[in-house]
């Protein structure tokens, strides 16, 4: 990054990538277990992974996500 234009392009690309990734995560969370049951095998999520996640959240709480 040698000039302000390349810095601005870098920031814009990083922001767009972050927003797109967050929208995918939001959509997956909103769809819930129904989508997990339907598409989980394509994402290599086993049937016991959601239970592991629930136990983790019970143990550490939602504050541990940050």
Structure characteristics:
about 70 residues, mainly alpha
Question: Can you characterise this structure?
Answer:
The protein has 66 residues and is mainly α. It has helices spanning 4-39, 49-60.
What's the helix-strand series?
HH
Number of helices, counting only DSSP H or I runs of 4 residues or more: 2
Spans of at least 5 consecutive residues whose pLDDT stays below 50 are none
Taken from the alpha-carbon principal axes, the silhouette is: elongated
Largest sheet: none
**Number of domains in the coordinates?**
1
Give the distance, in angstroms, between the N- and C-terminal Cα atoms: 30 Å
Radius of gyration: 17 Å
Overall average pLDDT: 87
Percent range for β-strand residues: under 5%
Which class best fits the helix and strand makeup?
Answer: mainly alpha
Total beta-strand segments: 0
| Helix proportion range | over 70%
What does this entry show, briefly?
The protein has two helices and no strands.
Topology:
Layout: H1 4-39, H2 49-60
